[in-house]
């Protein structure tokens, strides 16, 4: 099972500096290997169409849909309270050290740093604090990873990847931002337990 690793894009059309498909495609050109489609408030047909459009800019199987419905794909990312769907090959979950990980292939751990996207959400764990939760599956660092040094710190702490929303969505040049973050993560010293699709 290949699980997400490296730079993972989380979508947010409301904060995107341009049309969401264009921003995502630029981030993928810059080195993002996976995309998690959020936009859970969209009507089903619009969200399914957006999922299909985003899949066209990614290698097969690299679009993950937030929520229990994969929208025609084969990967989902669940919130802490979402039910575990059956028959989905790749399942991730937002994890804070207490949620059940039965049937889960990877987790996001947050907030690593405080973030503009969720003001007041914290306290920040830091990369080391996130690692100390000791996720039993590959983990992605999430929250406030907006600089190469923060990306490198997450790699050194053992994260399989970094999940980035605000820094990519709001960037005037998402391809360049993605390249900087992806390169910093990939070239950092490898931490204990790092892996998961890299």
Automatic annotation (TrEMBL):
Pfam families attached to this UniProt entry: TMP-TENI
Residues of the Thiamine phosphate synthase/TenI domain: 102-168
Any GO BP: thiamine biosynthetic process
Superkingdom of origin organism: Bacteria
InterPro entries on file: Aldolase_TIM (IPR013785), ThiamineP_synth_sf (IPR036206), ThiamineP_synth_TenI (IPR022998)
One annotated GO molecular function: thiamine-phosphate diphosphorylase activity
Pathway assignment: Cofactor biosynthesis; thiamine diphosphate biosynthesis
Alphabetized UniProt keyword annotations: Thiamine biosynthesis
Gene Ontology CC annotations of this record: cytoplasm
The UniProt record lists the keyword Acyltransferase: no
Keyword Protease: no
Biological role stated in the UniProt entry: Condenses 4-methyl-5-(beta-hydroxyethyl)thiazole monophosphate (THZ-P) and 2-methyl-4-amino-5-hydroxymethyl pyrimidine pyrophosphate (HMP-PP) to form thiamine monophosphate (TMP).
Protein's UniProt name: Thiamine monophosphate synthase
Gene (name only): thiE_1
